[in-house]
Amino acid sequence: MKKNERLDYIGKQLVQNGAVSIKELAEKLNVSSMTIRRDLRKLAEEGILKLIPGGAILKRESNITDEQEYTVTKAQLQMTKEKIKICKKAALLVQEGDTIVIDTGSTTEHLPGFIPPNMSLTIICYCLNTLLSVYRHCKNSRIILPGGYFHENTLMFESPEGISLIRKMRANKAFISAAGVDDKLGVTCANLHEVETKRAVIESSDTKILLVDSSKFGKITTAYFADLKEFDIVITDAGIPEKYLKILKDLGIKCYVA
């Protein structure tokens, strides 16, 4: 198992159990205790966990505001139950024969697990965690991966050539993530390197679907990539502020609460 896969596994175990044991992780992942200690130190440096004798415990959630602080591993530990519910709802919109785009992020990675495995689709994705999820769950789908430079904090592949490929294609539906949704300053992400790819996806897709948990509303992060009115559907959880339910209704945007 590669380092990023180990970190992903450790993060999910922390979410589920609140704590992890070095000995148990080493046995489960078939690596040395020293390797697990290095992995835990890296996650501790990112502010995800606190080291304790023989293991680690999960730290409380913290707001993500910019590219220097953002990592997918850290984001995976926030609003996890809500993100899973959102993707379960989103999967109901996928139809046989669709071409879909699955954006980068810690929310969208859950979507492939709820798509019927025998459904015939074309899936465009450009993020390692999403690619692995599509490969595992969508056995009857054609996968298109626009490649490029690998950004470790987002697990995203990005390049001018990849963006050009997306612009040449057309998708029925795009499932797009965001780090912030504000009624005045628009929809934002934490990383500037995401912006051009997200714009290409929006311009190449028929139905634009924003997948965001309720903590993102009223939040502004570094990189603007769209106005809220550019989306056709928003899928979120029951914590969405009433203010934003009204804003979405006034804009004519369908809002599904998972």
UniProtKB/TrEMBL annotation:
**Keywords recorded for this protein, A-Z:** DNA-binding, Transcription, Transcription regulation
Q: Which residues form the HTH deoR-type domain?
A: 3-58
Transport as a keyword of this entry, yes or no, is no
InterPro entries xrefs: Carb_Metab_HTH_regulators, DeoR-like_C, DeoR_HTH, NagB/RpiA_transferase-like, Tscrpt_reg_HTH_DeoR_CS, WH-like_DNA-bd_sf, WH_DNA-bd_sf
Q: Name one Pfam family in it.
A: DeoRC
Kindly indicate whether the keyword Transcription belongs to this entry: yes
Alphabetized GO MF terms: DNA binding; DNA-binding transcription factor activity
Instruction: Output this protein's name.
Output: DeoR/GlpR transcriptional regulator
